[in-house]
Amino acid sequence: MKTIKKATVIGLGQMGVTLARLLMKQGYNVTLWNRTKQKADALVKEGATFASDVVDAIKASNMIVICVLDYTATKAILFKDEISALVADKTIIQLTTGSPEDARELETWANMHNAHYIDGAIQVAPEQMARPDTTIFIAGKKEAFNNSEAVLKIFGGNIKYLGEKISAAAAMDLASLSYLYGSLLGFFHAVSISEAEGFPIDLLGAIVREVSPGFTEFMQYEAGVIQSGDFAITQSPLSISVEATERILRSSQAYKINTEVAELSASFFKRARQAGLEKQELASLIKIFRS
Fold it and tell me: Could you tell me which residues come within 8 angstroms of residue 53 by beta carbon, excluding any fewer than 6 positions away?
């Protein structure tokens, strides 16, 4: 007999709705729960089942996918005696964004009640889900990951299992967001330069897209340098970046645009020069962060 695939999705924001729909497209019987029932109406018309109570939603499936506002909302849903009594041997995939400490707290609760717990961090917008390059960071016990892998692969083709340390996915999410926001600040400063010089902003956007693969390949190389601990010059002397960031700052001042990002960049490389790192690979700047 054909096994009936079942899953429960808790939380019907834009991402939760997307997750539920992807499961339904793969033949899952999907049970939904959300504080606001109206958000489930379209999915119910497509064949999903709405549980009026979260207890019934948990009972309906052994695979529970949670994607709500934050971990406070997750805890308000799960940390109840009637829920704790139901989760033994069920697999909980937590795709709510949170901190490493949040992940540890949820795993402790899951362990206490014999549930399999996976903590995840989605790296794309809802419309970018289910692509070959859709990245989702995942952490949790290997058995829990094995239980959930088939479902996770429905959500994205680039599932990054980071091991059994439950905080790993949230920590990597923080790292990737740090990279993103740092890049965005640099981009907005670039927009200011373009506006001052009279370049079309969409031209800048196109150029950034074209050069980004080369930049990210270089960053990957520099990551390897840091991992090796050998900062002998192989690609880019740090001295070049000292001069470049000072030039960006001077030009920003001349353009009379905001200089905060330029000042921050120049200050890091100035400190690197003062620390005697000019004749090392660019990656040696990490020593300033570590200090």
Answer: 33
